[in-house]
Design goal:
The chain has about 250 residues and is an alpha/beta fold. It has 9 helices and 9 strands. It has a domain of about 120 residues: 3-Layer(aba) Sandwich (Rossmann fold), CATH 3.40.50.300. Helix 6 links the parallel strand 6 and strand 7. The chain binds adenosine-5'-triphosphate. Pfam families: ABC_tran.
């Protein structure tokens, strides 16, 4: 927190445009995130949500626009471990010979220097992170042998272990049951209460008011960023969810 009690801006995006060849995935998107808040990122399939996360993580190159994290270059924030990212499940190689504990331990790497050797306090944080998502009993299991919901929890645990200030989660709720969704939602609220800025994409519009302080509605462009109740007004949803474009 700053001295005047206000949480600083964690992320400032302006004019962000990403094209894949002839496809414009994001078109001049402006979005700011305050520390200490949960923001829902919503929009129909193909509206640019994953591309937005990838641009923030430097995984796709913007055609135009500016990204700032904590008032500085995103490269610096990412290298220092201030930014945690859980990609969509499809982006992850589940055949990789890693256990749940290995994946969660990766969240500590930015804190371990080049050796990547975890010290005792790091191991405590890894164990606590698995505990918080209810995966302690599966710590030794290969990640490919987890259920869909357990996989989501493993990557949320990695983000927890990282103790990042900006947490980016691409569809952490897809394919998870109600109880797990509630556990993860509560965790995200706790992280925000501790000062993190959390950006979470979701197709669960009903859960938005409980989960989020604000919601950003994407349709290549940012349609609206406001309180969840405002974003969920039928006239706003109609601007972004054109059923005729669904395919
Ligand atoms: N690597 C790529 N090459 C070409 N086009 C791509 C690529 N990745 C995404 N796109 C296109 O960019 C647009 C935005 O895709 P993106 O994956 O960001 O959407 P999304 O909102 O995350 O969708 P979903 O809800 O289905 O996950 C889509 O039209 C998609 O087909």
């Amino acid at each position: 927190m700053t001295t005047n009690g206000q949480y600083p801006r964690a992320l400032a995006v302006s004019g962000l445009t990403v094209r894949y060849g002839a496809t414009t995935a994001l078109d001049r998107v402006d979005l700011d995130l305050a520390a200490g808040s949960v923001t829902g990122l919503i929009g129909m399939n193909g509206s640019g949500k994953s591309t937005f996360f990838k641009a923030l993580m430097g995984l796709v190159r913007p055609t135009a626009g500016r990204i700032e994290m904590f008032g500085g270059a995103p490269e610096r924030a990412r290298a220092s471990g201030q930014v945690a990212y859980a990609p969509q499940s499809e982006e992850i190689d589940w055949t990789f010979p890693l256990s749940v504990a290995d994946v969660v331990a990766m969240g500590r790497y930015p804190h371990c220097g080049r050796s990547r050797r975890l010290r005792a306090p790091d191991r405590v944080i890894v164990a606590e992170s698995m505990e918080r998502v209810g995966l302690t009993g599966l710590a030794g299991r290969q990640i490919g042998a987890l259920s869909g919901g357990q996989r989501k929890r493993a990557f949320v645990a990695r983000a927890l272990a990282q103790e990042a200030d900006l947490i980016l989660l691409d569809e952490p709720f897809s394919g998870v049951d109600r109880a797990t969704q509630q556990v993860l939602s509560n965790l995200l609220r706790e992280l925000a209460a501790a000062g993190a800025a959390v950006l979470v994409s979701t197709h669960d519009l009903d859960g938005l008011p409980e989960l989020c302080d604000s919601a950003a509605l994407l349709q290549r462009r940012l349609v609206v960023h406001a309180a969840p109740e405002e974003v969920l007004r039928p006239e706003n949803l109609a601007r972004a969810f054109h059923t005729s474009e669904l395919s």
